[in-house]
Each structure stands twice: as structure tokens, then as C-alpha cells.
Specification:
Elements (H helix, E strand, L loop, with lengths): L2 E10 L3 H8 L5 H4 L3 E6 L4 E6 L4 E9 L4 E8 L2 E12 L2 E12 L1 H4 L2 H25 L2
Antiparallel strand pairs: 1-7, 2-3, 3-4, 4-5, 5-6, 6-7
């Protein structure tokens, strides 16, 4: 399996709590992360996710209000691994970070260079959407 790993950050001029309320609301994921079309709860902590490309996957979520982080654990589907979104302070600035560590299925591995660029651009766009939305709440 081909592994894709990267981290992207963005500074946001907003309160950590406001940003946390956005990123921790699982129902809002498709609004900001356009690679995810739907998130449907299956049981206590497992969800069926429908992606923008015609595939689905099983996901569990782990959130930590203490660390202001939400981790999506991809259990099965077109890739396995995790993405983690977290908020922290750095040099007096509020920073939102997304970290990706996923392994592509053999079929998707054929397209790994293109998918890596696609996932990175999508992550940057999602961070920008969250930034604009949260700054407009001020």
C-alpha cells in the first residue's frame, strides 16, 4: 500500500472555542471538507462516509476537547489510516492544523502522485473555508 503523509496549517483570527465548535461538529464535515459528501452514524462511534469520488468507507472519530483535536480513523474503504485536525496557540496566534497519515488501497495506489496533490490541495481549501467561516463569526 502507498502511504500519504502531510501536515498543513493556517493561522485564524478567531477564538479557539469558535473554531473547536466547527471542527468538532461531525455533521459539518461535508460543509468544509468537500472530499466528503456524507457522514452517516452507524453505531456508537462508527460512521459510513461517502466520498466525493464514488466510494464509501467506515470511520470512527476520537475527539479531545483538552487538546482541541478531532481524529478521523479510516477503518476500511479506499484508504486506511487517520486524519487529525487540531487547534493550538503559537507565538500568540491561533493555528488550525490538519495532519494526514493514510494508506491507499491497491487500486488507488496507481494514482498516488495525483491523489497526493489532490488531497493536499483539498486540505488547504478546507482549512481556508474554516478560517473564513470562523473569522466571520467574530
Amino acid at each position: 500500500m502507498v502511504q500519504i503523509r502531510f501536515k498543513k496549517t493556517i493561522e485564524i483570527n478567531s477564538d479557539i472555542e469558535k473554531i473547536w465548535n466547527i471542527i468538532s461538529d461531525i455533521s459539518k464535515i461535508p460543509e468544509f471538507w468537500h472530499g466528503t459528501r456524507e457522514v452517516n452514524k452507524i453505531n456508537d462511534n462508527e460512521y459510513m462516509v461517502r466520498f466525493a469520488f464514488p466510494q464509501k468507507g467506515w470511520v470512527s472519530f476520537a475527539s479531545s476537547r483538552e487538546n482541541y483535536s478531532l481524529t478521523e480513523n479510516y477503518l476500511s474503504g479506499p484508504f486506511k489510516g487517520f486524519t487529525k485536525n487540531s487547534i493550538f496557540q503559537k507565538n500568540g496566534k491561533t493555528v488550525l492544523a490538519t495532519e494526514w497519515n493514510i494508506k491507499l488501497s491497491p487500486l488507488l495506489a496507481l494514482f498516488s502522485p495525483k491523489l497526493t496533490n489532490h488531497f493536499e490541495a483539498g486540505a488547504e481549501n478546507a482549512l481556508d473555508r474554516i478560517k473564513k467561516f470562523s473569522e466571520n463569526l467574530n
